[in-house]
Amino acid sequence: MKESGFVKSRYSDYLLIIIGTALMALAINLILDPAGLVTGGFSGLAIVIKSLTGEFIEDGIPIWLSTTVLNVPLFLIGFKIQGARSLGKTLFGAAALSAWLYLIPAGSLAPDDLLLSAVFGGGLQGLGIGLVFIGHATTGGTDMAAALVQRKFRHYTIAQVMQVIDGIIVLSGVYAFGISKALYAVISIVVMTKLTDTLIEGLHFAVSAYIITEKPEEIASELMLKVNRGVTGIDAKGMYTGNKRTMLYCVAGKKQIVELKDIVMKLDPNAFVIVTDAKEVLGEGFIENI
After folding, report:
1. pLDDT in tens, 270-280
2. Do 70 and 45 touch, CB atoms closer than 8 A?
3. Strand partners of residue 209
4. Sequence-separated (6 or more) residues with CB below 8 Å from residue 51
5. What is the mean pLDDT of the segment spanning 238-245?
6. How many domains does the chain have?
7. Is residue 43 predicted with pLDDT exceeding 70?
8. Is residue 286 a part of any domain in this protein?
9. Which residues form the domain of 195?
10. Could you tell me the CATH number of the domain that includes residue 219?
C-alpha cells in the first residue's frame, strides 16, 4: 500500500507540473509577452530578448528557445554539483515549460488593456507557478541561478539573491518597453506572488480554537459529537489565580466556527475563546498526508 501511495503521489506531482507549466506558458505567450510586461525570471528575460532581437530577426528569438538556452548551462552546473537525482523534477518542469511555450501559438487576450493584462497575466502565471511548486519542482530559471550563486555567497539567502536577479531582469524590461509598462509589471508581480503564496499555504483554510473553560469535559463531548472534530485537552495554569485547569484545542473548518462558538457559549458563558487562522492542516478530516 505504501509503495502504491508513493507511485500515486509521484504521478500526481508530474501531472501538477504539466498543468502548471501549461498555465505559465498561456500567461507568457498570450498576455505578458504581447503586453510587454516583464515579471522577472528567465521567461521575463526571454521576453526582453525577443523584443531586442526583433530588429535583426523577424519576430525576434522565440521565448521557448531563449528559456531553453538560458537553462542549459545552469542544469549542467547543477548536475555537476548536486547530481541528476536531485534535479529530476526541476529538469522536467523546465522542459515542460519550454515545450508548452513552443506549442502554444502567440496571440493576445487583452491587446489594449494593460491593467487587465497585468492582473490576469500575473494571476494565471501565479496559479501555474503554485501548481509546479506543489508538485515539488521549479522550472529552473532564476530559482536555480540564485541557488547556485548563493553557494558562493553564503552570507546572503537564496531569496535575497533571487530578488536581485529578478530585479535586474525587471529593470531590463524598463529599457526594452519603457517605465510605464514596468510599473504595470509590478502589479502583475504582486498578483502573481499573492496567488502563488495562497496555493502553497493551502486552499483548505481552517481555524484553530483555544478554549479555556470550567467545563472542559462537557464542551469537548459536545464538540466531538456535533461539530465532528477532535479535541485535545492541554494542562494549563492561570498565572494570576494559580488555578490549574484544562485548556481545549480544536481545529475546525471555517464554516464550523459559528457552531463551535455557540456550543461553548451555551455550556459555559464565561469561557475564554481564542480563534486563529490555520492556513494549512494535514491529517484526518483535512488534507490527507500520503
Report:
1. 999 998 887 66
2. yes
3. 250, 275
4. 36, 60, 176, 177
5. 84
6. 2
7. yes
8. no
9. 2-201
10. 3.30.70.120
